[in-house]
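Below is one record:
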Amino acid sequence: MSKPQAPHAVRHPRTALLACCASLFLSSLDTSALVVALPALQADLGLDVAGLQWVVVANALARGSTLFLAGSLADRYGPRRVFRIGVVLFGAASLMCFLSSGFVELITWRVLQGIGGSLMTPASISLLTGVFQDPVARSRALGSWSATAGVSTALGPVIGGVLVAAVGWRSVFLICLPFAALVVVGLRWVPESPVPRLRRRIDPAGHVSIAATLFFVTFALSGGARDGWMSASTVLGSIASAVSMAVVVRVERRAVDPVLDLTVFRRPQLRGAVLTAGFSYFCLTGMNFVNTLYLQQVRGYAPWEAGLMALPLTAGTLVAAQVSGRLLGRHGPRKPILLAYLFFVAAMASLALAASTTSSIGWVLVAFALLGIGMGMANPPATSSAVAALPPERAGSASAITSTSRQVGMNLGTAALGAVTVSIAGVLARPETVSAHDFTSGMRIAYAATAVAAVLALIAANRWFPATPKSTVSEVDNTPRKERFDDYQRFEGAAAEDHQCPDRSDLHAPISGRPREGLLPRRGR
């Protein structure tokens, strides 16, 4: 048998890393910076709280519902091509958001922004996986990529506050254009990923059912704050969410090439990575949304002042991301993830205790710092664990799983924390108008519930992540079900003795712990 080929050398690996990190910074900055601009946007367009939620959620919903499709396209047609299309689409949609004059028009372009962001994210992970084929260098690159997500999300309120105070809320979208142009230029020195492409079938039923599930969940949560939790729209949205979830499970179990292979979730570490990625962004985006209204409308701070108060969040994320990367390399993902949950619990408990109209603002700053440390601790091990669970040629799909969990967390955080705060405040105020005291009472209950959820997530993560680091080799078989049966018949069944395996070492060498499906010819490839 011939020796496997050496990994392709990439001429400009740092340029590839810079382009991928810049694209993630661009997409995360847009959402986090916009949060500070929401009160100004609300006054300009005349929106209620539910309308503000949809300005944020529309982008995250479009991104989350198309991430699996984007990952499949990156694996099939090459990440560099999909990545470039995503950057161009995101930049063009940002320009149209800047020029929008009404709510419906803004929501439309926000949806296109989300689709562009979804094309960028899995493709960037695929590029990094192909460029950095050495395991140590790949871990460092993924750690830098993950840290960028936390830093840009934390830095967004600071930049957004300054821009809104100086220019207006539209400048939040305009700032995206220079970043998009730099990424497109940088791609000229980034080659296509050398990892072999997968000729997998597109699963339209799976994509549609997943997108419908995300939409109905977000619609039900947002409707709870707008129309009441027992209203017809909220109840119907909840029923539709349950039905669409059941459809996802049924469709994906029967699909030959499922967009979401449910068997990958048999690995506890992957479940823990998905939970950590989603819950961290649930806390971050939900807190940003509620605290923006609290600081500006209850405490009377200007947008730039509210933005500057997020500096402890940014600093905590920067420092903790470096520490998390070192802990990840030495001890595996368990220690940094458990530490992250402890900081999430502390941050939400602090906010629950400090939410009032007269409390010291120092408690809010402490909570921001604690949450930033938790974000910095959680992001690198979550991404690394998910990518390690699948083979390199499916890096786009691996990224889509964690990125979708982040987007689901963003959707639920904005919708759930905002809905709980507003609905409880409305219950306390009936039949009078909601006061600042009622709003802070709703905040306390929402943050206290989130702290309890963080404790439960901590217990689950403690069970799912191994106490000692294990091999990162994938144990997931990505072979279609029909071909898995054929492989069994050839190598395990009666015909095994008469079948001789052809040499396919040009694709990849056999890896310990994985089925030898790469040594078999594939129909349709």
